[in-house]
Amino acid sequence: MNVLLTAVLAVQMLTALGMIGLILIQHGKGADMGAAFGSGSSGSLFGASGSANFLSRTTAVLAAVFFVCTLALAYFGNLRTAEPTSGALDRGAPVSAPAPAASGAALIPGTSAPSASSAAVPAPAAPAASGMGQIPTK
């Protein structure tokens, strides 16, 4: 699969560079006015109007190939693998027993130890071992 992705990416980059080069070589719309008054290049490689047709058609073909490569890369990029991947949320942190919470009065210097009523407060529940257990469901 990686070889296919690398090949599609290489084709996309080559077509992008080809399109850039072909677009820079092409003449603008105003260049056709000079050909109408006798300054046309009838002795050129492609003929009087052959280069415009050849360059524009080649650019269109390269644009279509670039578009198909972009769609292929988007498709392969969104494929989900069947094997589960382990991420940071899937690995559970080691769970240790929480220390008993001290009451507000025990935190004030010069006061006595916490009373029995504050020691009877239940400790909060430990978080789930898996990150997937923390995501709420509908």
TrEMBL record:
Keywords: Cell membrane, Membrane, Protein transport, Translocation, Transmembrane, Transmembrane helix, Transport
Record keyword Metal-binding present: no
GO biological process: intracellular protein transmembrane transport; protein secretion; protein transport by the Sec complex
Entry's localization field: Cell membrane
Chain spans, region Disordered: 110-138
Coiled-coil ranges per UniProt: none
GO molecular function: protein-transporting ATPase activity
Pfam families: SecG
Tagged with keyword Iron: no
Low complexity composition bias: residue spans: 110-130
Gene Ontology terms: cellular component: plasma membrane
Domain of life: Bacteria
TM spans (from-to): 54-76
Membrane-protein topology: Multi-pass membrane protein
InterPro entries reported in the protein's UniProt record: SecG
Protein family membership: Belongs to the SecG family.
Protein role: Involved in protein export. Participates in an early event of protein translocation.
Official protein name in the record: Protein-export membrane protein SecG
Gene: secG
